[in-house]
Automatic annotation (TrEMBL):
<feature type="binding site" description="in other chain">
    <location>
        <position position="63"/>
    </location>
    <ligand>
        <name>NAD(+)</name>
    </ligand>
</feature>
<keyword id="KW-0479">Metal-binding</keyword>
<keyword id="KW-0808">Transferase</keyword>
<comment type="function">
    <text>Involved in the biosynthesis of the thiazole moiety of thiamine. Catalyzes the conversion of NAD and glycine to adenosine diphosphate 5-(2-hydroxyethyl)-4-methylthiazole-2-carboxylate (ADT), an adenylated thiazole intermediate, using free sulfide as a source of sulfur.</text>
</comment>
<comment type="similarity">
    <text>Belongs to the THI4 family.</text>
</comment>
<feature type="binding site">
    <location>
        <position position="238"/>
    </location>
    <ligand>
        <name>glycine</name>
    </ligand>
</feature>
<dbReference type="InterPro" id="IPR022828">
    <property type="entry name" value="Thi4_prok"/>
</dbReference>
<dbReference type="Pfam" id="PF01946">
    <property type="entry name" value="Thi4"/>
</dbReference>
<feature type="binding site" description="in other chain">
    <location>
        <position position="228"/>
    </location>
    <ligand>
        <name>NAD(+)</name>
    </ligand>
</feature>
<comment type="pathway">
    <text>Cofactor biosynthesis; thiamine diphosphate biosynthesis.</text>
</comment>
<keyword id="KW-0408">Iron</keyword>
<feature type="binding site">
    <location>
        <position position="159"/>
    </location>
    <ligand>
        <name>Fe cation</name>
    </ligand>
</feature>
<dbReference type="InterPro" id="IPR036188">
    <property type="entry name" value="FAD/NAD-bd_sf"/>
</dbReference>
<dbReference type="GO" id="GO:0016757">
    <property type="term" value="F:glycosyltransferase activity"/>
</dbReference>
<comment type="subunit">
    <text>Homooctamer; tetramer of dimers.</text>
</comment>
<keyword id="KW-0784">Thiamine biosynthesis</keyword>
<keyword id="KW-0520">NAD</keyword>
Length: 263
């Protein structure tokens, strides 16, 4: 077989064009391909919903790849073991309800399962703004404004594109970027005790893991928070290299969104 460079290029351009066009109107748009959003994407795909994850970096996975201080092992507690087993990630028991997983295997497996379930991950794409509409006279997040990450990084004056979503999920981790956008640009109050992004507290794994799951939910009409973005928005502790709360947060968000969309 003779390989033709132009044919290869055309194939890639056509395939990506088809993919992007199909994702300009979705049920759920998730920002950030960390573990919480990828687990959410997995369950949303399984539920038959149309979802897309926008990841600003080259590799999806967030901070999961590096384990704890670059020891590429991560911990998970018994509460989230059923998710790990469903996804097919290998683990080793460490006693007292703790388990460890190879961070590279765990991250790559979750990425693969998310995509195979039907949720597309578009890497190197960043959300620069939100679309908003009025519902009963009140603003509601109704989609995202997206651009190539290198364009934003280089501060090039290139206009972005808009896409619609019934719901948007902020899974940007510690920055809680989308929550900050909403409060700044819409001058809106979030569903937090201050109405703003409160900011995360210092590390306390026990409370942080609980807080992550409890505060997963709708923080503003049309906008949900998961994982560390939930901790940041509502002012909870961080939890370090244990990931059960992240996984449970993603599943909780997917279950809530599936129920609302299918009503």
């Amino acid at each position: 077989m003779r390989l033709d460079d132009v044919t290869i290029s055309k194939s890639i351009i056509t395939a990506y064009q088809e993919k992007l066009l199909s994702l300009l109107k979705v049920d759920v748009a998730l920002v950030g391909a960390g573990p919480a959003n990828m687990v959410a994407g997995y369950y949303l795909g399984k539920a038959g919903l149309k979802a897309v994850i926008f990841e600003s970096k080259l590799a999806p996975g967030g901070g999961m790849w590096g384990g704890g201080m670059m020891f590429n092992e991560i911990a998970v507690q018994n509460d989230a073991l059923h998710i790990i087993e469903e996804l097919g990630v290998g683990y080793k028991p460490r006693g007292d309800g703790y388990f460890t997983m190879d961070s590279v295997e765990a991250t790559s497996t979750i990425i693969s399962q998310c995509v195979k379930a039907g949720t597309t991950i578009l890497n190197l794409v960043t959300a620069t703004d939100v679309l908003f509409r009025e519902e009963e006279g009140k603003p509601r997040v109704a989609g995202l404004v997206i651009n190539w990450s290198p364009v934003e990084k280089l501060e090039l004056h290139v206009d972005p594109l808009g896409m619609e979503a019934t719901y948007v999920v902020d899974g940007t981790g510690h920055p809680a970027d989308i929550c900050h956008l909403v409060t700044r640009k819409l001058e809106a109050r979030l569903n937090t005790r201050t109405g703003n992004v409160i900011g995360e507290m210092p590390l306390w794994a026990d409370k942080g893991e609980q807080f992550t799951v409890v505060n997963t939910g709708e923080v503003f009409p049309g906008l949900y928070v998961v994982g560390m973005a939930a901790n940041n928005a509502f002012g909870g502790p961080r939890m370090g290299p244990i990931f059960g709360g992240m996984l449970l947060s993603g599943k909780k968000a997917a279950d809530m969104l599936s129920e609302k969309i299918k009503q």
